[in-house]
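fyi for ur records
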Amino acid sequence: MPVITCIDDLKRLHKRRTPKMFYDYCESGSWTEQTFRENCSDFQDIRLRQRVAVDMEGRSLKTEMIGQEVAMPVALAPVGLTGMQRADGEIKAARAAEAAGVPFTLSTMSVCSIEDVAEHTTKPFWFQLYTMKDQDFLRRLIQRAKDAKCSALVITLDLQILGQRHKDLKNGLSTPPKLSPAVIADLATKWGWGIEMLRTKRRQFGNIVGHVADIEDTSSLGEWTAQQFDQKLDWAKVATIKEMWGGPVILKGILDPEDARMALKVGADAIVVSNHGGRQQDGAISSMRALEPIMQAVGGDIEVHLDSGIRSGQDVLKAIALGAKGTYIGRAYVHGLGAQGEQGVATALELIRNELDIAMAFTGKRNVTEVDRSCVLVPEGFSGVWA
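which gave:
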């Protein structure tokens, strides 16, 4: 067995063990991938401030996200097609998150359904909602999340239309994969993945197939989803969905202080500073550069979380130091899932937990709730001086 010391080790195994179209779906951004790259590289511009001769005993990473106790300020982000990275992937990731004491967020575009995940877990998880034109389906989807005892609704705001992802187009991404000669040749080298996938019944979008009239196969499903994302989504509709849900609401996809103020106005419980992992608007600023201006605009009035670009516990620490109450990992845990299944997700979480713990100790803090801007050195003009 290979020795796993960081997320990059899991990433290499993921690439080796998972079909190319699904690995590329995870490890890519839109258009030139500038924002995808800068989400990670901008973390590297911030330095951790090392302090010495400080009592490091009795450290704690426990905190809260939207009033829910978490073992560390990390949640698993919603990731579509997770059940194609590994058979029953959403179930495996949710169980690993539950064991680690952190929230799991199920995507609308998951392979395992809301009911599948609820059946195989013992604690409430979060559900991420894409807003659709089909209002009957939307209402029923929200009710299904309620019935599954989901403890928060995460409304994604930055996918009214789909950003162009060149790799997905070139690979002919589909769920399940269509058997072209190139795909067959690739699958022939991924026999472990194939055997697991043959043993599961979950190979389509479980939240949609069987729940929408006239959807019987993935070709019609693809057409339906392309037509159904609601391009008219506005703040009034967000408020309506919040009322329909009736519980804690997290708004994901905020990059601008003015949008953060609007999220506060509609009564969101938390916002996620996010650019969809660089998969939507290429050329947008990184989430980390957007964080401080948003904190200055609304940080005292609403809980602020951050995703996009986190690959280590050090990254988590930097986000918390600049004001985030919590963070989300997507690719980091998917690399673990593709590499080693449920155990790989557990390993990814443990790596991040250990890195966060040690990095926090070296900044002179013993409790993650005490981490603040004094823990980091931020370059002048990091958040940008834009004309």
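Residues 59 and 366 are 4 Å apart (CA to CA). thats all i got for now
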